[in-house]
């Protein structure tokens, strides 16, 4: 009998990692995500893997977000030499995201080593380096949605569109063990069916074991159109108040959605701001990859910018969009005291250029901060959403006087009803495990699944292992 171990994103939303092992000695890792958020979570990125990377046959990756892919270079640095299977678009996004992640790791270590040297402490090594990442990138194997491939002997995988970000996949793994075949379906991150760019997540109907994400297991998102209207109102209010609008955003997925919505408002003459800055080199890179894989997006030519051939180039959707790739370009934004919308990373405000814009704007009551997505516990974004009066960033304390708005409707994750709808397509009642969610949210989903479908879902503990 094959075994499945729950190694990461268990009762939390980061560090996605699961291990499938057969009795014939085949080992396949599903996702190899980085822990993000609280300091102790981030420290666990340095812990040893609970398996020997050298013994893995393959990695199967659901999508490129760092909380699903961020430890791949460490895995390779510690001896993993096999293939990393992912969709073609995910393979391309990995290059962008993990080279950036390696740069952050190297810079963090460099900074830490400066103060360690002054204390007479030995230097630390970065979690991984650019060289580790470049080696890892050579192990990628691009796959196509809907086309089964043999990930490892006896493990046949098919990717289905998860509709979460470009390239995101639901992983269907058919695992043979001693002549017996079992089907594991891992939802990955399921998209919000209302996304303007993504298809609705593919529905599957057969599995023996399901791992389903539950980020928003406790609630539905606000109505989509109402959220667009809410955004339009905030932008009008910011215009009247005479301040800037800050939008911390994930470079991949959220940013492209925001550009789409802002483009829509611009075309309708409802965007009072004079300039929208995309102040994120990674998001600028992601736009190019979204344009490259435009045929995988759910866009019809009716998108903002009109149906001309250029309209699928994301920047064209919003004529007043200015990209600021270099640090010098970024600093020019500081001149704007009003009338600017600034989209910058990181999405949960834990780093990146958004911190500089916080320094210049967060303490000004005429400014508005629009949080368009989930903020994990322990992140600066969560602290602000939870109502902190002051926050510490870039070595100084800053008052939070800007108006803070949370827009739930733009989430790239399925809400509670969408999760229940997705899982209800499975014909029998396979064993269902809730993953990738905070415990309280999973408990709500567990209860609702029982009430509505009479389906008892399990909430695994970290390190649990089950027979497939
Ligand atoms: Zn994701």
UniProtKB/TrEMBL annotation:
Signal peptide start and end residues: none
Keyword terms of this UniProt record: Hydrolase
Beta-Casp domain span: 255-384
InterPro entries referenced in this protein's UniProt entry, alphabetically: Beta_Casp, MBL, Metallo-B-lactamas, RibonucZ/Hydroxyglut_hydro, RMMBL
Superkingdom: Bacteria
Pfam families cross-referenced by the UniProt entry: Beta-Casp, Lactamase_B, RMMBL
Domain Metallo-beta-lactamase: 14-239
GO molecular function: hydrolase activity; RNA endonuclease activity
SMART domains (UniProt xref): Beta-Casp (SM01027), Lactamase_B (SM00849)
Protein name as annotated: Metallo-beta-lactamase superfamily protein
């Amino acid at each position: 009998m094959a075994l499945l171990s729950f190694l990461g994103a268990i009762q939390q939303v980061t560090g996605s990692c699961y291990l499938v092992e057969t009795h014939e000695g085949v080992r396949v890792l599903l996702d190899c995500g980085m822990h993000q958020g609280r300091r102790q979570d981030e420290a666990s990125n340095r812990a040893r893997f609970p398996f020997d990377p050298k013994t893995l046959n393959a990695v199967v990756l659901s999508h490129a977000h760092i909380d699903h892919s961020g430890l791949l270079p460490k895995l390779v640095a510690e001896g993993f030499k096999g293939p990393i299977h992912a969709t073609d678009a995910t393979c391309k996004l990995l290059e962008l995201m993990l080279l950036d992640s390696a740069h952050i790791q190297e810079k963090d270590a460099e900074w830490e080593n400066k103060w360690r040297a002054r204390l007479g402490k030995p230097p630390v090594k970065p979690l991984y380096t650019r060289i580790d990442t470049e080696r890892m990138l050579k192990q990628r194997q691009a796959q196509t949605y809907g086309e089964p491939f043999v990930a490892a002997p006896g493990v046949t995988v098919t990717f289905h569109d998860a509709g979460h970000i470009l390239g995101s996949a639901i992983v269907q793994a058919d695992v043979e063990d001693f002549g017996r075949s079992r089907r594991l379906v891992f939802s990955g991150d399921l998209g919000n069916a209302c996304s303007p760019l993504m298809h609705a997540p593919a529905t599957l109907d057969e599995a023996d074991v399901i791992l389903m994400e539950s980020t928003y297991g406790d609630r539905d998102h606000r109505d989509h159109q109402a959220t667009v209207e809410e955004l339009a109102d905030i932008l009008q209010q910011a215009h009247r108040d005479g301040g800037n609008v800050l939008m911390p955003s994930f470079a991949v997925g959220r940013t492209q959605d925001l550009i789409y919505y802002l483009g829509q408002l611009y075309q309708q003459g409802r965007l009072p701001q004079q300039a929208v800055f995309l102040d994120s080199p990674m998001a600028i890179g992601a736009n190019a990859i979204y344009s490259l894989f435009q045929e995988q997006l759910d866009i019809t030519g009716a998108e903002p910018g009109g149906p001309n051939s250029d309209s699928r180039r994301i920047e064209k959707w919003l004529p007043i969009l200015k990209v600021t790739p270099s640090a010098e370009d970024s600093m020019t934004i500081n001149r704007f005291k009003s009338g600017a919308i600034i989209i910058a990373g990181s999405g949960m405000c834990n780093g990146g250029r958004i911190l500089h814009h916080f320094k210049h704007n967060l303490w000004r009551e005429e400014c508005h901060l629009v949080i368009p997505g989930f903020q994990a516990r322990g992140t600066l974004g969560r602290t602000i959403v939870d109502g902190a009066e002051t926050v510490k960033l870039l070595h100084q304390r800053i008052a939070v006087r800007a108006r803070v708005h949370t827009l739930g409707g733009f989430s790239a994750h399925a809400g509670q009803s969408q999760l229940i709808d997705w899982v209800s397509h499975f014909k029998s009642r396979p064993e269902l495990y809730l993953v990738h969610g905070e415990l309280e949210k999973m408990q709500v989903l567990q209860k609702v699944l029982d009430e509505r479908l009479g389906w008892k879902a399990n909430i695994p503990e970290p390190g649990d292992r089950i027979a497939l």
